[in-house]
Amino acid sequence: MKKIFCLLFLYLLIFYQCTDKKTLKKSKTAQTTVSTVSEENIIDINPEELIGIWGLIEDENAAFEISKDSIYYVDAGENVFYTVKKDTIFIFLEPNYIDTSIYEIRGDKLILKWKDLSDTLVRFYK
Asked: From start to end of 16-63, where are the E strands?
């Protein structure tokens, strides 16, 4: 499963690197409109709750470490910057970004959703 998560991340990285800026701006506008419509379902996430080392629930190895301003991907060996707005984490992969919904964070359990996919992660260390 860790390999699938890493391959998904690499696919997203390549996909977003190839996306032109006009398409990205249109997508961002459409996403803002959708977010406004369903605003009553949006929760505010405290970024401090995300800090720690996270891995997939069925895997014994860490997938990434979230610090105050960056995410370190263990398999890729690199840091990327992120920000949290309401229930969405924006991961900046220059010159674009990936936006993933934080479906739930409770204690040491984190559920992320992106389109039709979801990942349940557990915190190994805070």
From this structure: 52-56
